[in-house]
Amino acid sequence: MNIYISNLSFNVTDDDLRDYFAEYGEVTSAKVIMDKFTGKSRGFAFVEMSDDEAAKKAIEELDGATVDGRVIGVSVAKPREDRAGGNGGFQRRNSYSNSRY
After folding, report:
1. What CA–CA distance (Å, rounded) separates 59 from 55?
2. Model confidence at 95: pLDDT above 80
3. Among 88, 56, 57, 63, residue whose Cα is nearest residue 6
4. Quick one: angle between helices 52-62 and 14-22, nearest 10?
5. Which DSSP helix (H) or strand (E) runs through 19?
6. How do beta strands 41-49 and 70-71 pair?
7. Comparing C-alpha atoms, which of 4, 14, 7, 5 is closest to residue 69?
8. Partners of residue 2 on adjacent β-strands
9. Which of 24, 37, 51, 97 could be stapled to 58 by a disulfide with Cβ–Cβ 3.0 to 4.6 Å?
């Protein structure tokens, strides 16, 4: 099961996440999402666990827990949706077609 963790301290690492969730079962992956420009944490992460029952227990017990001074949110990760062109779904107008000149 894929788990979404929000409101993470910017100091939390992949290894920290792996340790927190390993208490509940086998962690197959743990990844803090990093900003591609700054290289700093974006404050959220994903953890994948092989046993769904262990994952549910981890979600139940860790949601609302305080980690590194912050109350984290832990939930089942929703499937990733296709993105619309990488510009937030906005369509650009051709600047020439809207010109009055």
Report:
1. 6
2. no
3. 63
4. 100
5. helix 14-22
6. unpaired
7. 7
8. 48
9. 24
Q: pLDDT tens across 38-90, in order?
A: 999 999 999 999 999 999 999 999 999 999 999 999 999 998 776 555 555 55
Closest by CA position to 27, among listed 50, 59, 6 = 50
CA distance linking residue 71 with residue 69, whole number of Å: 7
Strand order in the sheet with 2-6: 27-34, 41-49, 2-6, 73-76
Strand bridging mode 27-34 / 73-76: unpaired
- Token pair 């409101």 is found at 7
3, 58 in Cβ contact below 8 A?
A: yes
Q: What is the DSSP letter of 97?
A: T
First to last CA, the chain: 57
10, with CB counted inside 10 A (0-12, 13-18, 19+), is exposed
Q: Flag whether pLDDT at 91 surpasses 80.
A: no
